[in-house]
């Protein structure tokens, strides 16, 4: 028996598992993957030693043991990998939070979770003097504490969308002030590293930071594959999801932890990179045309956004910029557009 | 639903009968409130002159004022560093408090603040463009760029934040934050592109009174004073606008002119404050609320009291910023953000604000 879902879809069956895939989402994801691969190759080919795309591909797959191979694999690959992975993490994190709160503005950067992660990481660096793992833990704890604080402060007979945003912005401002204070009281060497980190930059990211971050991101993404069904059932409302057999509170908490962990680990490695998690899910939603946000599409858009932004920040401008400066401009313009469009629809 | 309700918060209701009789308990309470605010301002002014990385005994401060010719080190610190800094704090505070009060009254928006609405960021980006692209150096050039930036951003944010000409407070705030984010990004980019101006702008960007001598403050003061008078002159019209556009028109107020003049006052006040000290957020948000809570919903009194409370807050924040990191300093804008953000959260939690 076939059920009409209202949109074209394909069913994949393999062994005991089967999945029904929304056709347009599938096509969008494939196109995004292709675009992402192209963007990554361009990013790898630019620099003091310009290479052709063919040379990059040759170097990537180890067929080139010469200088070009070293440049691509040792110097440029960590950065580009970081851009792709971190963009993916930010996009998915934003998609989960926006879906959970049913609010297109509730992304980790707008509601202060990034600021919380940054402040948490700074506390570890400045006050405790920890290494990368400790900093990442500090970021995670800071992010989670902020998320919980925002939720509780915004709670007043239910959480109303805009109140959540304003409370998050307020808390974010406070935490940024705290971060500035910590930076100013830190020793100069510590403050210098921490300031570069604070602008949101992929420059300090090498394999030693990338590998643990990638492990956390992979774990969170695998967990989210399992949780994506409850996530989309939660969109129907608590009562309906109860009826569908979802453990509502437990799923919500697990989803929140995953989303915060994704943002926190990126913040720990590269600093607060603004607005990717805000814009990516909404762009993905428009590309896939579905009712909800596809996590895979959101992640791919995030990866594409961050890779392109970092390439622009590195090569298109006379001086290399922290990528956060580029994403804040792109994301801010996008937010303005979102508000204008919404206003027109209401009018 | 609009923000009309906010113009008359609950505390005012209990005092309403008292307002009929001049000299009654309400009037006495208002007088006490204003006297206390003035006293507090005097105290923080004194603290701002006495306290710092080198505390100076009160007797020597008195000596410095009575005998400015004596060339002791402490006299120079008082007259050349602390006094201009204190005056800067007062000037910037008055400008920010008034700008916030006028924004809140005009837009009937409890979340109105030149910092939150991006006006400061607009002024900042234009000043940065002036420094980086046109090589401006004098305070008046800074002021011109700041006011132009404030004006452009005010118009843009009002346009983005309004639906069919009605400005919704939350939407306005979001529009302001989005625009401010973009502009802050551009400001940072411009500073990174031009290392020479980086140093001049770095401290200024967080909002600070450090190294603001007479030469920076005095040229801007006449413009700020003129727009402060303009704001005070508009108070009565703003009271009527608070009742809604139709009611204001019926009361004989020219709404369009009031709006235009208010925008002029806001942009010069906020732009001037930013030109002097950099963007300082949350002062314009907090102060009018405290003033309204103390003294009732009449804009004339709110504006007057804001002129006393805002410099008190700014100077107190500056003194705190000097003390917590001594011998270093915390920029005043960071302290006001730390104090002001909880106020924003409390306002957002209020049932009325969220139903706006």
Keywords, please?
heterodimer, A: 347 residues, mainly alpha, ABC transporter involved in vitamin B12 uptake, BtuC, two-stranded antiparallel sheet, 13 helices, 74% helix, B: 356 residues, 16 helices, 2 strands, 75% helix, globular, disordered N terminus
Describe the structure.
The complex is a heterodimer of chains A (347) and B (356). Chain A has helices spanning 23-45, 53-60, 67-101, 113-128, 132-154, 161-185, 188-198, 207-234, 238-243, 248-270, 276-288, 295-316, 323-346, and strands at 9-14, 17-22. With 347 residues, chain A is mostly helical. Chain A has a single domain, classed as Orthogonal Bundle (ABC transporter involved in vitamin B12 uptake, BtuC), CATH 1.10.3470.10. A two-stranded antiparallel ribbon of chain A has the order 1-2. In chain A, strand 1 and strand 2 (17-22) form a beta hairpin. The N and C termini of chain A lie far apart (44 Å). With 356 residues, chain B is mainly α. In chain B, 75% of the residues lie in helices and 1% in strands. Chain B is built from 16 helices and two strands. Chain B has helices at residues 10-15, 25-50, 58-66, 73-107, 119-134, 139-161, 169-193, 195-205, 214-217, 221-241, 245-250, 255-277, 283-295, 299-324, 332-349, 351-354; strands spanning 162-163, 166-167. Chain B has a two-stranded antiparallel sheet. In chain B, a hairpin with a 2-residue loop joins strand 1 and strand 2 (166-167). The model of chain B is unreliable at 1-20 (pLDDT under 50). Classes of the chains: A mainly alpha (347), B mainly alpha (356). At the A-B interface, helix 6 and helix 13 of A face strand 1, helix 7 and helix 15 of B.
